[in-house]
Write a structure and sequence with these properties.
It is built from 4 helices and 7 strands. By secondary structure, it is of the alpha+beta class.
Length: about 190
């Protein structure tokens, strides 16, 4: 079982490239009217163009991204997640985390930041919306991303959205996301 799990993780991460740049990922998120309003009002955001996720009983996710404040890149970030529970498959997705104010931005960029198991994200996809968290999932259908009525709200000064890029993942697992931040050199 460990060999299958490791092979799956290696496969997922070896096929996840950073060829999708930040601009393309941001453009995908801006297609949703629901997300677009956050770009106009947020203090800053962290964008992960591609996060790879895979699991077979035990799972993991990894992605690299950039952090912005008032539209200017301030550094780079990585996301690591370990999950335990019923899960099988692999998936690639983009993720964006908006910071409502300076306090939320500072909390994220002051070293290692973790989302608890209760953190949630709103999935933005053509044809579907979903609110997901490590404690459950709810979903609904829509004809396009701009008609997605699921509201992203700030939790502790942060709002998170994901955009599924591909793959298939069955999951009923528990885990949290851990982020690190490295400030740009001047």
């Amino acid at each position: 079982m460990k060999k299958i799990f490791l092979a799956l993780i290696v496969f997922i991460f070896s096929n996840v490239t950073l060829a999708d740049d930040n601009a393309k990922a941001v453009a995908n998120f801006k297609k949703s009217a629901q997300v677009n309003t956050f770009f106009d009002t947020a203090y800053g955001y962290a964008i992960f163009p591609t996060i790879g996720k895979g699991g077979f009983g035990i799972g993991g996710s990894y992605g690299e991204g950039s952090v912005y404040k008032h539209g200017r890149k301030t550094g780079t970030t990585t996301m690591v997640q370990i999950t335990i529970g019923f899960q099988l498959g692999g998936q690639a997705f983009s993720e964006i985390i908006f910071f409502k104010n300076k306090k939320a931005y500072d909390n994220f960029t002051n070293g290692n930041f973790e989302f608890s198991a209760q953190a949630s994200a709103v999935a933005i996809n053509a044809g579907a919306n979903a609110k997901t968290s490590t404690t459950g999932t709810s979903a609904g259908a829509a004809t396009s991303p701009d008609k997605n009525k699921q509201q992203g709200i700030y939790q502790n000064g942060m709002a998170t959205f994901t955009f599924i890029k591909g793959g298939l993942m069955y999951e009923a697992a528990l885990g949290g996301q851990k982020f690190s931040f490295k400030k740009n050199k001047k």
